[in-house]
User: Fold this.
Amino acid sequence: MHTLLLLGLIVAVAGSASAELYEGDKVLRLTAENDLHLQFLRNVSHTGKAELWHPHSIDLVTTEKAMDFRVAADWVSDIQAELEKIGLKYEILTENLQILIENQFDRIRTRSFSYDYSSYHNWDQIESWTATIAKENPNLISRLVIGQSYEGRNIYLLQVGKRTGSPKPAIFMDCGTHAREWISPAFCQWFVKEAVRTYGTRSPLNSIVNEMDFLVIPVVNVDGYVYSWTEDRLWRKTRSKNFNSDCVGTDPNRNFNAEWCTSGSSRNPCSSIYCGPYAESEKEVKAVADFIRNHSSVIKAYLTIHSYAQKCLFPYSYTYSLAFNDNELANLAQNAVQALKSLYGTEYTFGSGSSSMYLASGGSDDWAYDLGIKYSFTFELRDTGKYGFLLPETQIRPTCEETMLAINYIATYVLNHLY
Ligand code: 0X9
Ligand code: ZN
Ligand code: ZN
Assistant:
């Protein structure tokens, strides 16, 4: 009888996310050393036998730079044989992707139900958390609905800051733009919890929320997030239907109006970096962009939380040209990642998106920057590929604690450099 009850729960909670979509898939890390290697990698990724684990455009793959590929189970032995034949050395990062995914859902199923910030939470839990935390802290937090997702869910924004009666400068921060990057919403929740916990104390965060407001969207891409819990753990995009294609969704971080769909984007609706039919076609993107446009006079910094890569990025990503305050941004990023590292020694790299990661247009950071928000950063949280998007829950607390130091550093700097 207990077994039956448990089985019922498993089905209810996990849906078919444990459908064996990734059984036997491996993640390989390899570095092309010559043109033959590059050609081989382009070919396999065009056939769909292997896919860049991190969504670079395949045309940007170069020699001397390690690349991670997810290789479909059916092709693992073929591809390994080919790699050996052409002398392309590789390392196996993940033996069986499905096992990693199932381990994560197993832990979620068997833990207690109390709300804790060291666990991943599904959308129903996060949604009711936004209501509770606002209701319990009326002097500090208010909850707004800034729009609806394609499937009709609310997109919430928590305004976190002491009520002073006069308008305050603000820092905008969003999480959960990409569905599968679960550590990101976990961080936004952690941040709000920390603001509540330290409220009225002599902490750096308290000084910040006294003088400024944080405008926090815990999950931007709500439909995608739900889908990553119920159907496909590795879903990235929105869930909007595409005209003339059975493939679903647009990459929200290719859909902003920043040199939209020029580089590092795809016009193919089946691609994980599909830019959408036009800029701001996605309701979630439109909601975020409208909110920022309507509050652009108070928003002094834009932060967007992603994973994974351990990087602090700033504009531009759509061009190799430097931002006008490139020096200042680089300094800020350097100090922020140094603060982050001071806690557990976690190493982050930093730089403009195009030089430190890849050329990609349509991103929210570049768009906010070109709107006039001169402090604009994308954080790529832990790790560097061992677990990737499947970062274990045991790493939520240390990841969030160290990231708080970087965010506090940036916020304090912005507060001292209002414009
Ligand atoms: O490619 C992205 O959208 C981000 N990386 S992720 O692995 N989380 O998907 C990086 C965004 C950097 N900024 C821009 N491309 N504008
Ligand atoms: Zn990468
Ligand atoms: Zn992302």
